[in-house]
Amino acid sequence: MKKKYFAILIALSLAASMGTGVFAGSKLQEIKAYLNHDIKIVVNGTAVQLTNQNGKQVVPISYDNTTYLPVRAVSEALGVAVSFDAATNTVNLGEKVEGTSIAKGFDDMYHTKDPQYTTYQGKDYKEVYYNSASGDRSSSFMLYPKKQYQKLYLQIAAIGENIEKFEIKDAEGSTVLKTVDVIKPEDGLVTIEVDISGFNSLYVNGNAKNGGAVFVPLTTSYYR
What we know:
seven-stranded antiparallel beta sheet; elongated; 10% helix; single chain
């Protein structure tokens, strides 16, 4: 269903309202257009109010028998990630071609670059989340995609003991986005794919056993 709406999103010739960087180019053409307050937007049978990133109402524009809609507002209504690359003056919708490592900006007490902990099955991952604390415990950390990405590809390995009820949630609304009942040491490095479009922050949590460790390579886990 999302792919269908994504196709509609492209077909509408959307006007990009991504910030002042969009207007910095040299190919701007002045036109006379009209804000059209009569146009209503309905997604999956439900009326929605389009807003910009600051929560302010935005209105469709009518010009030359074509309706132009603000790309950020529509993409968020459809659950399609959107971001703007100022360097190339490019609006990115959906998954990006290149992944962005979650190591960038990662902040947690179990974040380490110590080779003693960053090496798994003979490979040094350089930066990892490594929780080997004692006792049965909750092992958790935060991620901040900031609504800029469509997918999260998170790698994780259980060392020594199982990791149970591993979950990825919307940190602001507590919606569970993905649950894995158990990750076993013999499973090796597991890749978990999660749709994160429209989410600003994520809470990642699993139940670790005494004597076991939670290993998450930050350099090979990424957003797209």
